[in-house]
Amino acid sequence: MHEMAKGMNVGLSSLSPHVGSVLVGLSWVSPTGDGDADVSVLLLDANGKVRGDGDFYFYNNPAAADGSVQLLGKTPTENGDEDRIGFDLTAVPPEVDRIVVAASRYGGRDFGELADVEVTLADGTGERLLRFAVEDADTVSAIIFGELYRRGGEWKFRAVGQGYASGLAGLATDFGVDIEDDADDADGADHADGAQAEDGEEASRDERDTARTARAGQTAPDPHNSANAARNGTGTGTGNGTGKETGTGDGVAQAAGPDPGTTPGSPPAPAPGTSPGPVSAPRATDGTVPPPRAPRPRTAKKKVTLPRADRKALAENESWRPSRLVPVPTLKSDRDREVRATSVLLAVMAQVPEFGRRLTAAFGAPAGRMETYTEVVLPHGETPRRPDGVIRVERAGKLWTALVETKTNGSALKPDQVQAYMDIAARRGYEAVITVSNDVALEGSPLVDVKIDGRRKHRVALRHLSWAEVTYQAQLLIRHEGVGDRAHAWLLQELLHYLQHENSGCHGFQNMGAAWVPVRNGINDETLCEGDPRALDVVESWERLVRQLCLSLGGELGQKVLPVHRAKRGADPAARRNRLADRLCREGLLQAEFRIDGAPGILALNADLRTGKLRTSIEIPAPEQGYPLSRAKRLLRRLAEAPADLHVETLLEGGAGGPRGTLERLRPEPADMLPKGDTRITGFRLSLFKSMGNSRGNAESGFIRSVDNAVHRFYTSVVVHLDQP
């Protein structure tokens, strides 16, 4: 990686051929754990000024319509968080001469309170090309980290590191943007403590803004008036995440529309750690009455995620264990695990609206106020029933209710118990019965068969959740998408810790079933015949395992991972499983394919029960340009950190297989990958082999654990290094 000092510049094309799009990351470390800053991007013309309202990007205006700029938000790193910005340099308008990347602090704080302030730049493949550490940012509250600029038809990067003690206002002034304070507003919020305002204070600020608008004689904004204002040199306001408004000082109207992520009529939510300041009425440059200004953009709350790597602990030694909201080691029986798991899950669903809504939306629940209950007694004939939980959602005076039945470890759902809950729900007018267990429901094959009285007008839906799916949804929120409140993030982290603890009993599908060993032995001694029902049991268990792999891998990556079924749309799932069971009897193979968002191809998984080997592989197309040898060398460069035992096979036109070998052998001799003659290379197949576990369970030597390890190892050591599609 190219290390840069202040004032240095470098051409991007000299660092990588993949610089049509780049990824800029701004990062810092807060010793106190609560320091943060707002990232902003300005597009400047040849005069060093913004052209209009589309040239200023911040977290309330995060993306350009042409895709040239996109603020991607925070991503967890080893030391904390990193703010990332994506630039498509091929889409930047030709009149833009420079792109300035900056950040500013708020609440009277400066960058001297932060450590390891730096900027990095990566190419389109994700490989980091350069790094610039800002070392003299002690008393400044805004910094220009660097700038991308055009020279001689190519893009270059300059390490700037210029600080502004006057904060965002001083930085903006340099580029023709004027940030004004309204000294006449006696009700302005206090910036000294940087605390987040409560909902009531937000509403009062909205009322004060409305009163100021009325005093200024303003009416509803009109786009034609705004355009006239731009021609006449009068500026309009735009929010910038600091609680102030900016207006252009060079005769260009600067206005930002409302955030699409906010609800109309809701009060503006300040950024964490900020208090919005007073907003001034627009000032006319010619002494006339100013035209109506654009509506004040509502500031969306920043999403909160927790870093993957914990901060350095304050414990005296490693034997000290951090306190947990929900202790797990004390659980002794399956009944204790069921009660604890139900209570933890329902409590977090009620307290974290994003999480509760995500789990219930697929079941037909409305978006509304949610309350959850455990151990509710409901009458049912002579014997009252006690479901594990109840979920109730209120929306517009109407109630949606679901009964919950949970199982942990290897406990199976009891059909008579679920049937009783369905009958109770139908009589009482409830909408759903939700079952939660480690089992995974298959398409067209319900876990529990229940009878539904067709004479009843009110129908009750029977839905199932796997504990693996609950974990997946929690991971998406806490690791990738974020929630709107740090307390909610902490609750989700505690739930995730509980679900992943070895004693919780919530580990998802973990047993291939009683048929696994007989089928494996029958394949080895060739006594398993087609039509054997035990083979079908193994195929169904395999499909459950594949679906769980999609959830676990998707939760880690933050990407959608789906199983690929090569069958006609609408085909009978039962018939497909019967065909796979017959193939298992004939060939001893279990096969699956995964489609991963952002991967260059389909990830294939083969379990050969005859040889006891697992094979994970992916086929990638060969580059369209370049000589065959240059294509081979480029692939080997991408696989510099891949395992030495990776098998590489060259694919040739017509579907034939070409030369093959391990990465260890091919690295010193890339020409060995080329076929003899002039046969065209169409792609490459990359494969890893691993011994298969024997036992049916989830032990270290079990089949399930070996499959999970094989898929994760192949993705993290091979697929992530390949060119993205």
General description of the model:
The chain is α+β, with helices and mostly antiparallel strands and 725 residues long. The chain is 25% helix and 24% strand. It has 14 helices and 27 strands. The strands form five sheets. A seven-stranded antiparallel sheet has the order 21-22-23-24-27-25-26. Mean pLDDT is 79; it is low at 180-301.
Strand content: 15-25%
* Overall form: globular
Mean pLDDT: 79
User: Spans with pLDDT under 50 lasting ≥5 residues?
Assistant: 180-301
The count of DSSP E runs of length 2 or more, i.e. the number of strands, is 27
Total of DSSP H or I helical runs spanning 4+ residues = 14
Strand order of the largest sheet: 21-22-23-24-27-25-26
What structural class do you assign from the helix and strand content? alpha+beta
Distance between the termini: 24 Å
Biggest sheet details: 7 strands, antiparallel
Radius of gyration: 30 Å
Give the % helix: 25-40%
